[in-house]
Amino acid sequence: MHVALYVILTLVGLFVILALIAPKKTQVNRSILIKKALPEVFQYLKHIKNQDNWSPWKKKDPNMKQEFVGNDGEIGFTVKWEGNKDVGVGEQEILNIVENDRVESKLRFFKPWKSESDAFLSVKDAGDGNTEVTWGFTGINKIPANIFMMLYNVDKHIGKDFEEGLSSLKEILEN
């Protein structure tokens, strides 16, 4: 009986320690240089529907169901999706647009697990008619999900998808 109690107390203590030291925040971003003037790049990026042309997740499920609410390229525009196991169920809402600077949005995932993240696309003049595009997101890791984040390298996994998407974006905008 005492051994079982010690084992349970040890496991609870381990869980508490891991929950305290595990990362509370996730942040991923990637950048690419596009040989196109900033205003043209920004006009393309601020329309969420254009992500269907370069997003790696659209490629993972080209048959995903999508619903659009509002005016694309404006604050409040929301795309809702329901897809296969690779893309899940969620929505993206434009929260803020700073013309020729950045588009900020909220990502809400409902399946396979619930989470929220703040996403952005930003542009910066890189000179000589080039534009640097940065795609990123930040999210809060709640307990016990933050313990899982100790074992899962979000930056490596999602960063790879961001790199793929940005490469597709570059190809589209430069051709």
From TrEMBL:
Top-level division of the source organism's lineage: Bacteria
Xref: InterPro entries: START-like_dom_sf
Name this polypeptide is given: SRPBCC family protein
Organism: Flavivirga algicola
